[in-house]
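USER:
Before I trust my own judgement here, I would like a peer's view. Write it directly below this note and I will take it from there.

ASSISTANT:
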Amino acid sequence: MKKFIISIIVLSTALTSCSTDLDINRDPDLLDPDKAPLSAQLPAGIAGLAGSEGASYAIIGGFWSQYWTQSNAANQYKDIDNYAVGTSDYNYAWDGMYDALGDIRNVKKRALAEGNWNYYLIATVLEVQGSQVLTDFYGSVPYTEANNQELLNPAFDSGEQIYDRMILDLNDALSRDLSTSAGSLPGADDFIFGGDMDNWTKFANTMKLKIYMRQTNSSRSAIADAGIVALMTSGVDFLDTDAAMTQFTDAINQSNPLFEYNNRRLNVATNLRMSTTMASFFADNADSRRGAYYGAGNALNQGDYANPVGSGTIAIVTLSATTPVFFMSEEESLFLQAEALERYGLGSGKALYDAAVAANFSRYGLSGASYVAAGGAYEYPSAGTFAQKLEAIITQKWVASFPGNGFEAFFESNRTGYPTKSSVPQSDAGYIPGQLAYSVNGSTGGLFPRRFAYPLTERNANTSAPNLIPITTPVWWDNN
């Protein structure tokens, strides 16, 4: 499995175009990092991040955000669904992320030396985005010494150190005058914005907002408060489009990684089944997105893969070969801004919330207007408490993160407590639709996962690797 996943990362990288954006002529790992053009290394890094975030981490996030559950007619993902993942599982996701970050950090180093502030900004934002996913999953990870070939045992920075460093790095990149940038201009090699530096600046600003927001319930809430207020009142622009890799086609090694990994190429296409959690939420609100997320059929209670009912009666998760990999969606940006306004009394989040919900419905060719209208199922609680507003925002962010960004919904659930965790199993008549339920076959004594296990590959190779930490132990910002 590891070999195949890495091949997706490598083979899905555009270095010199043949017939499509994702065709290649050379393996990027065979290029001299000090001589290869930036336009060759950047797409390797982008595709590498997309390969790991959009496949393995998307699978894990989807289970732990309860978009799907393991099919009762297969067993590929039982270890994730029952919280039994260990240090020997999914090592290739970690390896793939750091392989991609190696390309990105080399672009950053080269761009700094050349005074190419365009590539420097792009590489910095990507370095931060990938590192944010890693530290939020694992806690302490290599950052300041990562991808340095002269260091065999890079230090693991604490999550707090990484968060501070990410803000400093973004501020540094944003401080550079792009009008004085030297060297080549990014273009088709920028799989995300095609060289549009205004969008990269907005993405950087929105990553800063996200990093501050994730600390709001931590012991460093004062840092978060000051950072968010300063950012929201500074007049900077935030992301108003998707930061996404969109070049996928329905062909081997050129499809969306989640589709490639699970749905058609490697595994049984019916492994992922509709979870009662999301299904009950949709049913309770007569949400038309249900038909876009899942095929026909019934739901399966989370983790109930030993249920003997016929597999044909359980709805299959709908995945597409051409779905983009979202490093940050328009909806996520809007929800972040809405929360910031409400959390700090800077204004009403209603317009941003409504726009985010509408954008997600529109993604599937649907209209969300009636849902956010007065009396609608998702009407914004303008007269409600902050807790009610936050629940509305985070719940809709949870829904909108389907299918590939479930790990972000998982992080946000750990930060805010939304969706609420059920005190009863889903088989109980008192179960409330849409609440997260402990897996029927859970292995952690009723405790939900809060992080992922450090990979054995890193523990064997790096003497600086920390001791094992149970997946039920919260990361530093998770005080919910």
Observations:
- The chain has 18 helices and four strands.
- The chain has a mean pLDDT of 92.
- The CA atoms of residues 292 and 365 lie 9 Å apart.
